[in-house]
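Sorry, any thoughts here?
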Amino acid sequence: MKANKKSVDETILGLPRNEQLIVKRLRNLVLECLPKAREKNNYGVPFYTYNRMICFIWPPSIYRGPQRSEYASKGVTLGFCQGNLFSNDDGALLAEGRKQVYCLYFNSVKAIDERQVRALLYEAEMIDAQFEKKKIKKPE
């Protein structure tokens, strides 16, 4: 029997206040910039998908495992699932030894550069469009 999965709203309400504010702001930006994306609670955090997984918002209080304290000091993660395909000219996205997923971290709402986040989300949408499944025409 499957355990009941929390909704994204329920997950956000269970976060510490500072994380709630950051997650809500990032979530609003994602929903604004990626209107076609589907929001889903995966691994207990909001993930956004369309053709493939596009991005996720991971609050540090939800991290588990040996690196929990390290991530707690970095703040809320905005991760891009196809980060390796971004231009990343300004080096804002951090690979940190990962091959595909690149991230940004935010310790406060003020730390969110909305123009930069929007630009990254629009780029993520363009990258995701490359994975659109082509419809195969059936011969008549």
User: Anything to note?
Assistant: The longest strand covers residues 53-58. The radius of gyration is 16 Å. The helical segments are 8-13, 17-33, 68-74, 114-129. The chain has one domain: 8-129.
